[in-house]
Design goal:
13 helices; elongated; 6-stranded mixed beta sheet; 6-stranded parallel beta sheet; 15% strand
Length: 340
Amino acid sequence: MARARQVKIRDVAQAAGVSITAVSHALNDKGTLSEATRERIKSVAERMGYQADALARGLRRSPLGAIGIVVRSLDSLGEYYVPGVDVFQRTVGVLSAKALERGLAPMLVPDLTGRSIPTISFMLDGYIVLNPHLDDPVVELLRNRGIPYVTQGADPQRPQFTAWASEDDAASTLAVLDHFAAEGARVPVLVRGTDQNAWNLDSEAAYAGWCRRHGAQPRTYSVPEGAGVQGGLDVVESIVGDGVPDAVYALTGRHAAGVLAGLQARGIHVPQDVLLATGSDSEHARHARPPISAIQFNPESTCNGLLDLLQSRIAGGAPEQPRRTATRFRIRSSSRRRDG
């Protein structure tokens, strides 16, 4: 029996050779599955001793006063402490403190589709999913199980989903690019991550739009988030090979630090030859030489917005509009060619 309680919905899906959605529909008598398929999936679930859904549904009738927090960017990295990257620590810390102030017990949970997730993870009142990806399996799992959730950043797969709050990434990108232009830059390039989340996608869309309006040729380079500083170092070869730009906007602080080191190693001076900024303030940006200009998030406003939306969804409230919060662009030496 102990082993049966550990069986997950993805295990049933794999054993039956169907999707997680099909398993959910079969066990809940939903969807348009054929009767034969529905009965086959139920038979597989019964044979494997799958009980989590029934248990979770029963307990969710009585709220626990506890919510889950899933950090999808860290799930993607495969590590949950990234030295020098403090944005996730700040966001989770503020979110947890604000939840406690509201009488909610926050619980940090790794990738919900993993095999070592405790059963209680599916009994929580709701979830906050930070930075969901395109076609995110965690979002799909929460939807299939009927667990209320909200997201930090829009769900790229479901533009109609409005229960999200986030910093205004497009406005942040435009602030950086306008600053570059005011400093004389005309050929900025963008270095973004490879995660297909709203931060990367919205920033790139804003960058492309800015380039069209200013008659500049867009040049975007994608570097895996997990590549860190080395990824920024490596991409400089491609950037310089395509022609030295006069400005670089690297979304992650670690990539920006690598770009800085890569440019300097080639005798290209920052900011004299190339302006540099990052979309995420971090120790890498603050401690660089020269210090790197950076977008500074406002976690208090975003986290309050996320909790407002989640509590409304848990209570069965009407759909609400997304919450966009302002950021601050900290201009440092890396992007300033003149005093003032």
